[in-house]
Each structure stands twice: as C-alpha cells, then as structure tokens.
Design brief:
Protein name: 4Fe-4S ferredoxin, iron-sulfur binding domain protein
Organism: Geotalea uraniireducens (strain Rf4)
Oligomer: single chain
CATH topology of the largest domain: Dna Topoisomerase Vi A Subunit, Chain: A, domain 2
Number of domains: 2
CATH architecture of the largest domain: 3-Layer(aba) Sandwich
Pfam families: Fer4_6
Structural class: alpha/beta
Strand order of the largest sheet: 8-7-9-10
CATH class of the largest domain: Alpha Beta
InterPro entries: 4Fe4S_Fe-S-bd, Corrinoid_activation_enz
Distance between the termini: 48 Å
Length: about 240
C-alpha cells in the first residue's frame, strides 16, 4: 500500500541517536553509527522523531510500504524490554568479570604529610561507574546525589573531580555508542529502587550528547518521583555553558 512513512537521509545522519527514544514504537535503531528504520510495519508515519533530529536527516514521504501493525509494535517493544531486562541482569551479575564487583570506598583524605595537592585527589567513592555495569540496588546510591556523566566530559573539563564528582555517586555512558533505550530503562530502575536526592547530568556540547539528558529525563518521568534535576553542558574546550 502507498502510505506516509519515515525516511532517514544516511548522508545527513550523524548517528546522534536523539530520534531513537522519541519513537514510541521503537521503529528506529542505530546501526553502524547511523539511524535506520527497523521495519516498515513498526512506523506509524506520524513523524514524532522529526523534531529531535539536529541534522534534519528525517522526513516523511509517501511510498509503497507494509501497513502499520500495532500488534507487531507491541511484540517488538516487549522483545526490546525483555532484552533490556536480560542485559540489566547480566551486568548486575558482573558479566563474569571480577573487576565489575560493586564496591564503595571513602575518598582519600589528605594528611599533613601528603605531598599531593588536595585538588589532585580522586573523589571517586564507588566502583563500577559504567551505567551498563552498575547494580541499581548498590548501597552507594541510597540517599545519594547522583551525577550522570557523558564519558567525554572528564577529558574535556579539567576540574571534574573537584567541581562535580566530590560527594556524589556517579554513572557514565555514551548515548551515541551505546543503546540509549537501555540507558533509559536502567535509570528508570535506578530511580525506582534507590533514594536519589538530586540528579546532575553532565553532557558535552555536541548534539549526540543530548541523548543522555533525554534518557535521564524520561527515566525520571517514568519513575514518577520529584527529584531536583540539573543539566550542565561542557564545551569541547572545557568551558561550562
């Protein structure tokens, strides 16, 4: 049948992934660094994803396409949820890697004989830090101020430990290279089971980094909790916007 459907210009697409969480049907995925339509019958042709694309790579066209199938969408979303749950459980079990075991530790304190300047001391108080690996029920998330960090930020911002990390629990990730839908599900579970006092999201100025902010906001909305939320943008030269 001839109907309206999403078309993605592969030349314009930079793989930022902002369109993925905006598609309620889960019809768009990132493949080899580019957004693609998973299947014609998953796209309703309404174009909710259009406004999220900073490159104007998405538009609505009319062409021969399979009819939109709500049953197929529900099956697809259910399978995606099951995959997410399986991934969360896998990472919660540390994936067989001893280095992923959850640990809490006090930040090192400077002594009078310590020759290392205070601003050079690590402020990390937990392990692991990767959002894909952290157990959502870890004790270091209870009554914690949570810092959600795009993983390029600590490289761009020199005083990350002193200005942002100190006194906070942290999770890091890359919304362009990883599955942002998984991030949303993981953060939703984290907010549900842990007593988070505040949320600070650190992102880079590049468009693809908006995905980690979107994941955090959607997770917060899904959890139904009123948690203070702050977004900070870091420039590629380390400036704060």
């Amino acid at each position: 049948m001839i109907r309206k459907i999403v078309q993605i210009d592969q030349e314009k697409c930079d793989g930022c992934g902002l369109c993925v969480p905006s598609c309620a049907e889960g019809a768009i995925k990132i493949v080899n660094g580019k957004a693609e339509l998973s299947a014609d019958n998953l796209c309703d042709g309404l174009g909710a994803c259009l406004g999220e694309c900073p490159q104007n790579a998405i538009n609505i066209i009319e062409r021969e396409a399979d009819e939109f199938d709500e049953t197929a969408v529900e099956t697809h979303l259910q399978e995606s949820r099951q995959e997410t749950v399986a991934a969360v459980q896998h990472h919660a079990n540390h994936g067989g890697c001893p280095g992923s075991s959850a640990m809490s530790f006090a930040s090192p304190q400077r002594s009078l004989n310590d020759e290392i300047p205070a601003n050079h001391q690590s402020q990390l108080g937990q392990w692991p830090v990767q959002l894909s690996l952290v157990p959502t029920s870890a004790p270091y998330f209870q009554n914690a101020d949570l810092l959600i960090t795009a993983d390029c930020v600590p490289f761009a911002y020199a005083d990350y430990h002193r200005d942002f990390l100190a006194g906070k629990a942290v999770v890091i990730g890359c919304p362009k290279l990883d599955d942002n839908r998984f991030y949303t599900e993981k953060l939703t579970e984290l907010f549900r089971v842990s007593s988070i006092k505040s949320i600070t999201v650190l992102r880079m100025e590049v468009p693809c980094c908006g995905g980690i902010v979107m994941a955090a906001r959607q997770a917060l909305a899904a959890g139904g909790k009123d948690i203070p939320f702050r977004e900070v943008t870091i420039g590629i030269r380390g400036e704060v916007f």
